[in-house]
Amino acid sequence: MTFTAHVNVMLKPGIADPQGQTIEKALPVLGYEGVGDVRVGKRIELRLDAADESDARDKVDAMCKQLLSNPVIESYEVDLT
Amino acid sequence: MTATVGVVVFPGSNCDLDAQRAFADLGADVRMVWHEETSLDGIDLVVLPGGFAHGDYLRTGALARFSPVMDAVIEHAERGGLVAGICNGFQILCEAGMLPGALRKNAGLKFLCKWVDLRVENASTPFTARAEPGQILRIPINHFEGNWYCDADQLEELKANDRVVLRYADNPNGSLDDVAGIVNERGNVFGLMPHPERACESLLGSEDGRLILGSMLDHVAAQHELSVAG
Q: What is the pTM of this model?
């Protein structure tokens, strides 16, 4: 079976995110008030062949741990279809 | 016996020739090692140089850690051989799990290319033995992702065991606890963001980098003497 995985990689809560902070400062300048907690992450899309959904989830999970995220500073979520 | 330094060249390395010149000027034999090589036989000291290995795609060092040469680098370290990662090399060592922590984007979101003062916190390592404890070294930095981070427990462990080897006198990038360079638990793998290989000639503004590179060569010479005596 073929699956599509959408992986969202975010800096863990508490890890300073200078990109998010910069965007947060820029938005009020453009007139957008009341914006907070801006965080910037990455979205990775991929297609993979797997025996079933459980197998696909295991494979993407392994990819995330080994390469797609750095567990020291990042967390990830997988959306599988 | 002359030390043999292996400078690993990844696609995207750009400080490899600086390292080659600096170590050669200190009297070492320098061999350039393509990242697809799988043997480091005959090499005493492995240097992972600065640059943008594999384009720094995904994260700095994330792809370089899977280059074929890295298995040999890990084996070299496990045998007690010295490994030094400079700038991008430090990032690669962290991604490979050979050093703790990770390098985040600089706090000010600026690429920093300037001279900084570093304080030698531990002068008893193979990488700093030529320096004095507390000595200030003037060495340049040149990076966008030098903002080192680890969790609180890890930091306590590093501090308790004198594994923070270099600190910034005036933190330029937000690095946790002003950390500029650390060693592994065994003390034979060293990572630092600043570029000692670019501070080895007075014409370039400083010779302080020679203390760091020279310390490594001293250590290799002592290892050779031991093996001859043994």
A: 0.94
